[in-house]
Design brief:
Structural class: mainly alpha
Largest sheet: none
Helix content: over 70%
Strand content: under 5%
Number of strands: 0
Distance between the termini: 32 Å
Shape: rod-shaped
Number of helices: 1
Oligomer: single chain
Mean pLDDT: 95
């Protein structure tokens, strides 16, 4: 349960980075 928010944040950051690089 504690890792759920972490995966969500990481996924959001990854999406944001890919949006900038892409």
């Amino acid at each position: 349960a504690e890792t759920d928010w972490a995966l969500t944040v990481i996924g959001y950051l990854a999406k944001l980075v890919l949006g900038i690089l892409g």
